[in-house]
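Hi U.,

Before I forget, here's the chain from the pilot set. I'm dumping it here mostly so it's searchable later in email.
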Amino acid sequence: MAETKVIQEELEKLIKLQDERNSVHIDWIKTILTISTSITTIIISFKTGKTENNVQLISYIATISLSGIGILSGLLHLFGYVVLHNQSLLIQNDNILSLLRDKKTEMISKINPPKYHQISEKICIISLIISFVSLLVYGISIEF
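Structure:
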């Protein structure tokens, strides 16, 4: 079995890598949400008059609807990180209390993200991609 010091160092590296990965992922999601919100706002504010054909109408409605779904599910996904951090805090708090009472603790605890965390990420990405495609269709249909 490996020495405790070596295991501790490897655990610290793992924690650092996980924190960096989460930080990069959160920044990416925030950037995507900011861009999507801006594009949706611009599309809505510059819309003038009625649409000329069904392709324009359907692609416009799809763009706005899917953007809204993508933005909301992205926000829900980001909220999942708040829940994960709260769970980590509670587990760490319990470990400290157990140590103060001279009880053994499990120093490695697995925290499972809520189901909606992974589902909302997929919905966010898929919705925003389809929204972007329908925006392209809308833009092209204006020219025809």
